[in-house]
Amino acid sequence: xxxxxxxxxxxxxxxxxxxxxxxxxxxxxxxxxxxxxxxxxxxxxxxxxxxxxxxxxxxxxxxxxxxxxxxxxxxxxxxxxxxxxxxxxxxxxxxxxxxxxxxxxxxxxxxxxxxxxxxxxxxxxxxxxxxxxxxxxxxxxxxxxxxxxxxxxxxxxxxxxxxxxxxxxxxxxxxxxxxxxxxxxxxxxxxxxxxxxxxxxxxxxxxxxxxx
Amino acid sequence: xxxxxxxxxxxxxxxxxxxxxxxxxxxxxxxxxxxxxxxxxxxxxxxxxxxxxxxxxxxxxxxxxxxxxxxxxxxxxxxxxxxxxxxxxxxxxxxxxxxxxxxxxxxxxxxxxxxxxxxxxxxxxxxxxxxxxxxxxxxxxxxxxxxxxxxxxxxxxxxxxxxxxxxxxxxxxxxxxxxxxxxxxxxxxxxxxxxxxxxxxxxxxxxxxxxx
Lengths: 212, 212
Hints:
globular; Rossmann fold; alpha/beta; homodimer; about 25% strand; about 30% helix; 8 strands
């Protein structure tokens, strides 16, 4: 979802270099230095306005979190939350999900979250979907061998595609939910902004948890 | 679904040894002899009353079909249809889906259909589900290496389970549909009795097509 520009976004980002890194280069293998504690690192690719990642970080002080987002305005909204919350286990990146291997070292990341990514429904845009094989290559390259990829979407076509794509890639499924919000197995789901709105109107949420 | 016994069932079966085989032993590798033509063999495990398999056989004269069913009354309903239709590419088996490797030789079967199998929702009954790994072992043992397994269900829990089970087994997904009856990719779906009723009341049908 493209957001309207905000004049406060860029100055806010520039004022908080301790909380946010812009297009991080030379940071590979060094992310733990930016956190209060050295603990497993979880990355959300495409954080939007950050409801999910800030609530996850608050609920899981035993893990470190990074919110990665391409849109300056969106990550500025996440930053605004973090300026208020000052979570010691949350860092932000303004950067491109297509460049993960430039940002992270092999095995540096333990978990990857993909939440309500753009479905890119047209066949000619398949390569832009965050579950296309070139992206799966990237997650694999930066993830610990025991790491887990968690993917949520409301988009039926993207979920069908992603089940086939991740299966064909050779990933191992841990869990599939075809109706996450009515799934007795799930007790600790944290919603994104979009998920909350969509689900409150009765829409189904799908989830796949898989590993390499 | 368990059907009420019918007094005509057993005599009908006994009267048509050319169309139906009861607990076939010694038939491994010889099924083609029972058909008018030697052509790829498709097996439905759990045929119920046979709407699906008889319509498939009528629509695809270029393939041979076998309806396998454990319940005598149910297979007798299929037989009643076949006595009327006399399809040269359809054979019936009254037998147990747990004994496939006793009935068929390796690579004898090209396609396996699982339609609206009993979901066995209790965890302690997992081993009875037709997509449990011991059943996947059996299909693999009798299937040609290019063979395809097509699985349809309306049961969300069984579909979630089967996606994980078949993925963990190492099967390769060709196609997933989370709403088969509204899927633009599918133009030739043939319904079972149950599917027709369930779907006409607005229920969702799931489909997975996979290979070994």
